Amino acid sequence: MLIFALLFVALAVVGALVGLGDFGHPIHAQSLQSYGWGLTVNAVALAVFCMLVGRGRLRH
Predict the structure, then answer these.
(1) Is the pLDDT of residue 33 over 70?
(2) Which of 4, 20, 22, 52 maximizes the CB count within 10 A of its CB?
(3) Backbone torsion region of residue 31, taken as left when φ is above 0, otherwise alpha when ψ lies between -120 and 50, otherwise beta
(4) Distance between CA atoms of 43 and 54, rounded to whole angstroms?
(5) What angle do CA 19, 21, 22 make, to 5 degrees?
(6) Distance separating alpha carbons of residues 4 and 57, to the nearest angstrom
(7) In whole angstroms, what is the distance from residue 56 CA to residue 24 CA?
(8) pTM for the whole thing?
(9) Nearest-CA neighbor of 1 among 52, 59, 60?
């Protein structure tokens, strides 16, 4: 689960870079920033979930 959490953290960083406009380019003059922030929010939520599930498995 730790591997998945790290993967989602990396996706969150990429999403934040897209959201800030530092990574990627517009497609037909449409901004990708909302997609970047959406990716960031979802990736952070999944990373936290993976960490909590992994933590629960270590306790049992």
Answers:
(1) yes
(2) 4
(3) beta
(4) 16
(5) 110
(6) 15
(7) 37
(8) 0.80
(9) 52
